[in-house]
Structure formats: structure tokens, C-alpha cells
Amino acid sequence: MEALPSLDRATEYFDRQASGYLAASDRLPWRWLRNSESAAVLGVTGPLAGVEVLEFGAGAGYYTRALLARGAAHVWAVDRSPEMLQQLGAARVTPVLGDVTGVRVPHTFDAIVAAGVFEFVSSAYEVLLNAARHARAGAWLVVCYARPSVWGAGYRTFHRRHGLDIHLYRREQFDAAAESAGWRAESWRRCGLFCIAARYRLTAGA
Ligand SMILES: C[S@@+](CC[C@H](N)C(=O)[O-])C[C@H]1O[C@@H](n2cnc3c(N)ncnc32)[C@H](O)[C@@H]1O
């Protein structure tokens, strides 16, 4: 797939952030946002014990670690930033350098997580469709994305300052894209100041 200039900038940006990314999650105000977000994301996941998980936009492994700590057997962690992938722990993780819109992982999954990556892609539908390609019958998908609001606009302004034009999604709009890609909405929660965590299920015949 041909890379879009804005995604190149995003990769450069996340490469620069990688070494301090996990530590930043532990500093205010990010810590408060993280706690709220992760409680919602982990609160809507399906069963994790013994499950192999595909993670899209894994970054430095914040959720990778949380999924493993909750009993996941293994995480296949996809990201476009090589520096972010360097931050992943080695045990029970397979790092995959690739674009979530088109990457092919040689495996199918019962569980897929994509948190904080939809803001940086030009088509959420392409990511959701690619997730469906990797899903087994009955698989669940948990996502976390930013929604339009005053705080969401602030998040967009924050990223504009380093040249990234991010995307925010209304829940109805995101659910419609998910449905077109073969995912039925099951559960959702608002979290942080401007995010939504949601679980979807692969529909029959997707
Ligand atoms: C905001 S960070 C979130 C990382 C992680 N999920 C977390 O919650 O800490 C977004 C991550 O998505 C990755 N990313 C952005 N666009 C991507 C794409 N098209 N394909 C793969 N990874 C992408 C970035 O490199 C970055 O690591």
C-alpha cells in the first residue's frame, strides 16, 4: 500500500516518542486519561485466558502488557513505528512491522484489540476490514477511538502542532464502518475526556 504523507509524519512522530512513551503514560495528566481509558478498554474485552490476541497499533506495548497480564497466551503486535516495536517486551509477543490497513499476519484470531490507532489512519473501514480478515468465526474486536468534542478538538490541536491531521469519529459513524466491515456492535463506554471503547463481534459470513 502506498503510504500517505500524513502517515509518514505520524510514524516519524511515534518513532521520536517511543523511548519515553510508556513512562509518559504514568505522568499526569496522561496517567488519569490512561487509567480511565484502560479501565474501559479492558472492561469490554471478551475472555483473555489462554487466547492469542492480534493487536493493531500496539505502540510501546501498553495494552500488550495488560493483555498478557490478564492471561492472554500471546500477542501479535502490529505497528508502523519500528522504534515503538523495540519497546515491546519479548516474552509471548510477536512484533509485526506493518500498516494496519493492509498488513497480513499469517494467523487468525479469536480476539483483536486496536486502541488509539484509528485517529491516525485515513480509513477506519480499511482497518476494520483488515481486522475481519484476521478474525475467526465468533471473534471479538475491542477498539478505542477519539470522538468529536471540545476535548477531542483539543487532542486534534495537540497533534496539529507536530503536523498530524488526526481523525475523530462519532459512535454512529464508527459503528456503521464496523458493520460494513463485518462487525456487529456489542458494548461501548465513554472514557477519558474524549474517547470511546467498544466491543464488536464478527458477524456470520463476514
Ligand atoms: C497513540 S499510539 C497508541 C499506542 C498503543 N495502542 C497505546 O495505547 O499505547 C498510536 C500507535 O499507532 C501506530 N500507528 C499509527 N498509524 C498506523 C498504521 N497505519 N499502521 C500501523 N500502526 C500505526 C503508531 O505508530 C503508534 O504506535
Report on the structure:
There is one protein chain. This protein has 206 residues and is of the alpha/beta class. It has a single domain, classed as Vaccinia Virus protein VP39 (Rossmann fold, 3-Layer(aba) Sandwich), CATH 3.40.50.150. Strands 3-2-1-4-5-7-6 form a seven-stranded mixed sheet, with helices on both faces. A hairpin with a 3-residue loop joins β6 and β7. The radius of gyration is 16 Å and the shape is globular. The N terminus is likely disordered. The protein binds S-adenosylmethionine. S-adenosylmethionine binds next to α1, α3 and β2.
Percentage of helical residues? 25-40%
Radius of gyration from the alpha-carbon trace, in angstroms: 16 Å
Helix-strand topology string: HHEHEHEEHEHHEE
Low-confidence stretches: 1-5
Question: In the CATH hierarchy, what is the superfamily?
Answer: Vaccinia Virus protein VP39
The CATH first-level class comes to Alpha Beta
Compute the number of structural domains: 1
End-to-end C-alpha gap: 23 Å
Query: Compounds present?
Result: S-adenosylmethionine
Largest beta-sheet characterization: 7 strands, mixed
Work out the number of β strands. 7
Q: From the helix content, strand content and strand pairing, which structural class follows?
A: alpha/beta
- Helix count from the secondary structure assignment: 7
The CATH architecture category equals 3-Layer(aba) Sandwich
pLDDT averaged residue by residue: 93
**What name does the CATH topology carry?**
Rossmann fold
What order do the strands of the largest sheet run in, or round the barrel if closed? Answer: 3-2-1-4-5-7-6
Shape category:
globular
Beta-strand residue percentage: 25-35%
